[in-house]
Design brief:
The complex is a heterodimer of chains A (263) and B (315). Chain A is an all-alpha fold. Helix content of chain A is 73%, strand content 0%. Chain A has one domain. Chain A has helices at residues 3-21, 23-43, 59-89, 91-96, 102-125, 138-165, 169-185, 198-206, 208-221, 232-253. Chain B has helices spanning 44-51, 73-79, 95-105, 110-123, 139-151, 169-179, 195-198, 218-223, 237-248, 266-277, 291-299, and strands spanning 4-15, 18-29, 33-37, 59-64, 80-83, 157-161, 187-192, 203-208, 211-216, 229-233, 251-255, 258-262, 283-287. Chain B is elongated, with a radius of gyration of 23 Å. Chain B is built from 11 helices and 13 strands. The A-B interface holds A 1-3, 6-7, 9-11, 14, 17-18, 21-22, 86, 88-100, 257, 263 and B 45, 52-55, 73-75, 77-78, 80, 82, 84-93, 97, 100-102, 104-109, 146, 149, 161.
């Protein structure tokens, strides 16, 4: 094995070791999405009447896939945020003076965050028995797994790119709050696209997160569920394109020197 | 000595319009300890970053281990280890986990890596801390682990950028006790603003505002100033310089409230000075010149922003 693979593996493994040791982080990443799920799900319990060929029997069920995507998003993004701290500590500088391609950094950090996001998504699938209407099939589960993987990688890479370009965690949080929450809120996670105003529908169709939520929901509840924006394969394809675009962006970004002078 | 491990020819580096390094040309021989001494902002860290392949020179030629750090970065990177101002350690991981992580960056694994880690921890007195999380180590111990990290892949050249930042004098001394025996196997380049660190090097380059001010063995540089220097402290230093020049034909320079006098026979001279100028003198010191004096002689200002003035020590 060469330095490239060893580096990717070592960075990935480090992320897992740290995550397992830090219980607070594990629960922290789950707590906020769970709170959203319970508050929104029970809050709109009788207010929202979903239409569509097959509506899930409760808003809680409709919301669950969106909550899983939200968890993936948070977990993946915050794992690569560590990059900012590491720049200050010198760890990143040490990586940059090692004879290893910078793409190994992208993949090591990216796959670490992806794995954590995937683990959390699997944990959240444990909530599925609490709602009715799930139609689990082997193909559906493969879709859920694939879209979680792609979404996790995409957001881990997005976090990586922003962390590479920003110099403080404050700036990083600002960017993430301005970009991420709206992306999620307008993804069909909270309300189905068919009931939204036309202008919003257009925005939702342009939002890559919409396709992640849709693919995940169809994987769990079948293709005739409310809020579908395309076939599951189509949604997966678009998610894949989005992930690929971010991968290219990340690989391109690490060619530039780190923004700002850490020292 | 064998062929130089670093060669700089007319190296200039600019951050935008700010000139960080100006036209540096010198060689660093292999198997030596080379000090880069200068105040903060003199370009030491920039030069280390250039040598470490992190920045390309704006102008000029640079060779590290015989290669071009820009075009042959990976070859250069294999040959050098870098110890940064901040330890490059993950504080949540244990000492061994950190070293395994960094070993991977150099393609090291398995028994080879295990053996190397054992050997280095033993040599640097860290064997008992192998399984301790880095955050539970003292700052001095963390520095030692970071030094271990820098040496892991057997570099020919080790760059150290202010490696004792944040250490108390005792821990700093302990760190140097570890560095000194390394000279036999690896070339050390150390950026520092501390006199006592630079004086331990074989050769030292004095940098000021990105320029090379002086270069040579610490002994040779200080000896060039004479056997001793005379420092006078006065409330009217400028006037004193004038008087020394007019009355005694002495060359003197005011630095803050102090006046440095170039006098080969300071001992014999001092009583005469007290007789003639007693009311102008607050104190006088005669001592062997240090690198601080060399720096002062070349630049006209002190090495450190808050200088330990030689005159405040003795009357």
């Amino acid at each position: 094995m060469n330095a490239f693979i060893l580096t990717v593996r070592a960075l990935w493994w480090r992320e897992l070791v740290k995550f397992v040791r830090d219980r607070a982080r594990l629960f922290g990443a789950l707590a906020q999405p769970l709170a959203f799920w319970i508050l929104l799900g029970l809050g709109f319990h009788r207010s929202i009447h979903l239409t569509g060929p097959v509506a899930p029997d409760s808003y809680l069920a409709y919301l669950l896939p969106g909550i899983i995507v939200l968890t993936i998003l948070f977990t993946a993004i915050f794992s690569t945020m560590a990059l900012i701290e590491e720049r200050r500590s010198g760890l990143l500088q040490a990586l940059l003076v090692a004879p290893v391609a910078r793409t190994a950094l992208v993949l090591g950090y990216g796959l670490g965050g992806t794995t954590l996001a995937l683990l959390e998504a699997i944990l959240l699938l444990g909530l599925l028995p609490l709602v009715n209407g799930a139609r689990l099939t082997a193909i559906g589960l493969i879709q859920v797994f694939s879209v979680s993987l792609l979404a996790g990688l995409a957001f881990a890479l997005l976090g990586f790119v922003v962390a590479w370009r920003s110099t403080s965690t404050r700036g990083y949080h600002a960017v993430m709050n301005v970009v991420l929450l709206p992306l999620w809120a307008l993804s069909g996670a909270v309300f189905p696209i068919e009931g939204a105003a036309p202008v919003l529908q257009l925005i939702m169709r342009l939002n890559p997160v919409t396709y992640m939520v849709s693919a995940l929901r169809q994987g769990l509840f079948g293709t005739s569920i409310a809020g579908a924006v395309g076939s599951p394969e189509g949604c997966l394809f678009i998610t894949g394109l989005f992930t690929l675009a971010l991968l290219l962006w990340a690989v391109h970004t690490v060619r530039n020197p780190l923004s700002g002078n850490a020292f | 000595m064998s062929e130089p491990v670093v060669v700089l020819s007319s190296v200039t580096f600019r951050y935008g319009t700010h000139v960080a390094l100006q036209d540096l040309s010198f060689e660093i021989p292999a198997g030596s300890c080379f000090g880069l001494l200068g105040p903060n902002g003199s370009g030491k860290t920039t030069l280390i970053r250039l040598l470490a392949t992190l920045l390309p020179p704006t102008h000029g030629q640079l060779r590290v281990c015989g290669f071009d750090p820009v075009r042959e970065a990976d070859t250069v990177r294999r040959c050098l280890g870098v110890v940064f101002q901040h330890p490059a350690l993950d504080i949540d991981l244990t000492v061994e986990e950190n070293l395994r992580l960094h070993g991977a960056f150099y393609g090291m694994r398995g028994p080879e890596l295990t053996q190397r880690i054992e050997e280095l921890l033993e040599r640097l007195g860290l064997s008992n801390q192998k399984h301790t999380p880095v955050k539970r180590l003292s700052v001095g111990q963390q520095r030692r682990v970071d030094l271990t990290r820098g040496l892991l892949h057997r570099p020919k050249l080790l760059l150290l950028d202010e490696p004792t930042t944040g250490l108390d004098p005792l821990a700093r001394h302990a760190f140097w006790q570890l560095l000194n025996p390394l000279r036999q196997t690896v070339t050390l380049i150390i950026a520092t603003h501390l006199l006592e660190e630079a004086e331990q090097c074989d050769t030292v380059a004095l940098l000021d505002a990105g320029r090379l001010v002086a270069l040579g063995a610490p002994d040779a540089l200080t000896r060039a100033l004479g056997q001793e220097v005379l420092w006078l402290k006065s409330s009217t230093p400028e006037a004193l310089v004038q008087v020394l020049h007019m009355q005694f034909g002495l060359e003197a320079h005011a630095v803050g409230h102090s006046v440095r006098v170039a006098a080969p026979n300071a001992h014999a001279l001092l009583p005469h000075l007290y007789d003639a100028l007693g009311d102008q003198l607050q104190s006088a010191t005669i001592r062997r010149p240090t690198l601080e004096d060399v720096f002062l002689a070349y630049t006209g200002h002190h090495l450190q922003a808050a200088p330990e003035l030689p005159l405040s020590e003795s009357p």
